[in-house]
Design goal:
By secondary structure, this protein is mostly helical. It is built from eight helices and no strands. It has a single domain, classed as Tetracycline Repressor, domain 2. Helix 1 (about 5-35) crosses helix 2 (about 35-45), helix 4 (about 60-85) crosses helix 6 (about 105-120) and helix 5 runs antiparallel to helix 7 (about 125-145). It is elongated.
């Protein structure tokens, strides 16, 4: 049984969210180089950097949680429309329109993730794997529905990084 007084419990639960909010804002404003624990402490009015390390460990893990949080938010906004769309074309439309709307509505989140990606190019594939997988599934549905052609069949390979078996002319 939790014996933490309610006021403290809500404060403790909100600290990681506050840290993530501030980290996203700083990443959008000053990039990864300028997003330091000192700046996060100052902007979030935290008592110590230890709160950041307690909740997130390292700066790299904190940035990973930022990517995870933004991805989760994007999926929550885009995913239901894609899943409920009746056809592969409607799914593709929902996917594209949902992504465009998320980018429009969440510029700081997008800038934060871009900043992290630019600083960690080796991890970009890992960061976008879920998005690529959804797009590849939609394209596969289109192929199964009879929408074919060389460009339609090449898209999943290009998206996954698999080599194409076709020779370029």
């Amino acid at each position: 049984m939790d014996k933490t007084p309610p006021a403290q419990a809500s404060c403790v639960r909100s600290t990681p969210d506050a840290i993530l909010d501030v980290t996203i804002a700083l990443l959008a404003e000053v990039g990864t180089a300028g997003t330091t624990f000192d700046r996060i402490v100052e902007r979030a009015s935290l008592s110590s950097k230890r709160l950041i390390t307690y909740h997130f460990g390292t700066r790299e893990l904190l940035f990973g949680r930022v990517v995870e949080r933004v991805g989760t938010a994007a999926e929550a906004r885009i995913g239901p429309a894609v899943r409920s769309a009746p056809s592969w074309r409607a799914k593709l439309r929902a996917f594209i329109e949902g992504n465009v709307a998320f980018i429009r509505d969440e510029p700081a989140s997008i800038a934060a993730v871009q900043s992290i990606m630019w600083a960690s190019p080796a991890k970009v594939g890992e960061m976008v794997a879920g998005t690529v997988e959804v797009l590849a599934q939609i394209i596969a549905l289109g192929q199964q529905a009879g929408s074919s052609g060389p460009s339609m069949h090449a898209l999943p390979r290009r998206a996954s990084g698999a080599p194409s078996m076709r020779r370029s002319r």
